[in-house]
Structures are given as structure tokens and as C-alpha cells.
Specification:
binds flavin-adenine dinucleotide, alpha/beta, 415 residues, six-stranded mixed beta sheet, globular, binds pyrrole-2-carboxylate, 12 helices
Length: 415
Amino acid sequence: MKYSFWTLFKEGLKGHKNWQPAWQSSTPKSNYDVIIIGGGGHGLATAYYLAKNYGIQNVAVLEKGYIGGGNTGRNTTIVRSNYLWTEAALLYEHSLKLWEGLTEDLNYNVMFSQRGVYNLGHSLQDIRDIERRVSANQANGIDAYMVSPEEIKAAIPIIDISSKTRYPILGASYQPRAGVARHDAVAWGFARAAASLGVDIIENCEVTAMDIENGQIKGLQTTQGEIKSDRVGCVAAGHSSVLAKMAGLRLPVESHPLQAFVSEPIKPILNTVVMSNGVHGYISQSDKGDLVIGAGIDQYQGYGQRGSIHSVNHCAQAIIELFPGLSRVKMNRQWGGIVDICPDACPIISQTQVQGLYFNCGWGTGGFKATPGSGDVFASTIAKDSPHPLAVPFNLDRFITGALIDEHGAAGVAH
Ligand code: FAD
Ligand code: PYC
């Protein structure tokens, strides 16, 4: 439904009365064709594409908390596709192309803003690595190129490119089509679109056990009772290993906290995204003016979604080194999310040895950018019970064959 400016204005004055919920809350049915565990962006996108592309509408998304309350609502929203290896680059580029039409596709403004992303280099080795990645990107048709310190300064006047800093800026890669999006809108847009196609979105429904008979998934035990299905997709980010354990599986993932923080809103000073692996920090400015800043992962493993002062301190020092003019800006809040990291910093999109049980996880510190692409290829993998061509390299088998795809460099800052 489209609203005129005046209708919206009058509704605003009325105090948002009589607005319809974007999707109806559902209670579980006894049986579904497919159940998706995890109501983050990836789970909701998977359900949406199952219904839209494969006509599988008898689908439930089970979320233990609220929609988007996991990493989807906790991330710093950087979207890019400048990964080193062809397998990963093609997967993230597939996603970036879906981002470019997502607002229209969902009929929901996900505020995708292609304001470009800089990846800074501070040493000769950094520059060699970045140049190698840019060459690989160009060979894969991805829009990345090298920029000099002077070009960076021309685009970002507040950055310090002098040679006197602890980490002088020697150059950067730049991807113009990269950018940021509004994370909550992505979750809400996919939820609304999936629900309108018949998907049941069930919040406050934690999966506590899996029913498996003769190597085939039969259903789930949840805090809202037993629900049957012979196809289950697990998309639970930081809690994937907890779900895998319910099926007697062990995933090669480690769960770590990753922290970020935002400042008070200030006038527009930064119209792009700057990331630096060397100093372990990255920054962008949200449309309402907050500086959105993130750190490297906490080195310890854990499930606590809270921040810690030492990590924020370390990151703020790095950012002030790059942008000395920000030293007086006040920080408003900090938080953490739990990211699931594979040994090669690449995701798992895979069937498992349990028939009908699929995992989509291990996106680590970089899965927000993959949300539509991941949902699309995972939906295909579940619908056809066969890996989508882009998902083949991300099968669990790679940890047995050794065909790992090392993306630690491109995963970057947060590692
Ligand atoms: P989630 O949104 O975490 O969804 C998983 C859901 O599963 C959760 O809502 C959880 O409650 C639910 N769940 C778990 N267990 C159960 C259960 N037993 N039963 C039912 N439900 C369950 N990526 C980028 O690309 N760019 C970035 O700039 C970026 N910045 C980040 C910054 C921070 C601070 C963090 C923490 C992450 C960042 N990421 C970034 C990574 C990104 O957020 C994740 O890779 C991505 O959001 C994962 O999406 P998801 O839908 O799989 O996970
Ligand atoms: O994957 O681009 C990324 C990212 C930036 C910060 C955290 N993840």
C-alpha cells in the first residue's frame, strides 16, 4: 500500500493509531514442509526465497527471541563483495546484486546506500595484499581499484594521511558499489514479504532438541511444543554449534563476541565507509548522524552479547589515530554479538549426514552483506536437496578434503 505525504503526516500526529502490524505473529502448526531455525536476516531471507522462488509456502521460521534480535540487529551493516578467492567473491557478488534490487523486490526500503568502502593499507605488506585482492576482484568483474593517500584525503577530508602517525596510510582499495544498509529494515522487510507469501513467523520459540530417526530429521522439540518436518534449515549464527550438538554433529566453528559502538549524532562528516585491518577498526556515519564504529573480535570464546571497555578503548584509539578530529566526540552505547567463525573465515552452506537437515552458518564477522545471497542459495539447496552451484565450495566436506578457501584477509578488520 502506498501512502501520500499528508496521510503519513496525519498518521504521525495521531500517534501511530490503527497501523497494521507488518506481519502477523503465528502459533506453530503441527507440521511444516520446511522449518527454518533462526529469525535473523539469513533465516528470514531463506524462508522468503523458498516461498517466492520454489512455491514452498508451508514454512515456519522459529526464533527464540524476537525477529532481528541476533547479529542482524547488532551489526555495523557494511556490504561489499571484494573477497580474494573466486568462490567467495562470486557468492558475495551474487548477494550484492540482490542488494541492488532488494528495496523494490521486498517493497520495503532497506536503505541500501552505495557510498563505497575503503580498505586502508598501512605497510608494504598490507599494500601487496590489497593489490593482489584488487587484481583478483577485477579478474572476477568486481568493481575495485587502488587509490593513493592523496586520493583518499580528497574524498575524506577528515582523515590524517601524514607520515607521522603510528600507522601511516600508504594507500587503499576502493569498491564504489559497496556501502551500508539499514539492518532492522532488512529483517522486517524479509519478515513481511515472507509472511505475505504464507510463511509462519514464530517468535519466542526456542528449539531445544531434534527428533532424528534412522538418520532422517523428523521434527523439533521447542518451547512451544513439538513441531514436525522432514526438512530443517539451521541459520542460527553464533549458536550454530549448539544446534549441531542436538543432532549429534560437531561443526568446525568457534563462537566469539564481536563488539561495536556508536557516538552521539553529529553533522555529516563522513559519506563513505573506512576499514583498516592494520589498526583493527572501521567507521561509517549513519543517516541520523551517529558514527558507527567497530572493533576486532574478542580473542576469547563465549556467548555473552555484551561489550567490554578494553576492546572499545583499543578500537577508539585506532580510530582517533586515523581521524584525530573525532577525539572529542562522545560515545553513546556499545554492544556485542556472537559470531561463528570457521578456520578459513568462510561460511558453511551445506547438507549434513542427517537427511533433511541443512546448515547455513560460519559467516563470522561478515554475514550481513551476504543476507540476500545466502538466503537465495540456501533456499535452493533445501528445495532441491542439492547444493546450489554457488554453495558447492562451502560444503562441510571441505573440512575433510582440505579444500579450504582462506578469506582471513578479506574478512579483515574484525579478525
Ligand atoms: P542472526 O541475526 O544472529 O540470527 C540467528 C538467530 O537465530 C538469532 O536471532 C537467534 O536468536 C536465533 N537462534 C539461535 N538459537 C536458536 C534456537 N535454539 N532456537 C530458535 N532460534 C535460535 N557483517 C557484515 O557483512 N558487515 C558488517 O559490517 C558486520 N558487522 C558486524 C558487527 C558486529 C558487532 C557483529 C556482532 C556482527 C557483524 N557482522 C557484519 C556479521 C553479521 O552480523 C552476521 O554474520 C549476520 O548478521 C548473521 O546473520 P544471521 O541471520 O545468520 O544471524
Ligand atoms: O565484513 O565488511 C565486513 C565487516 C566490517 C565490520 C565487520 N564486518
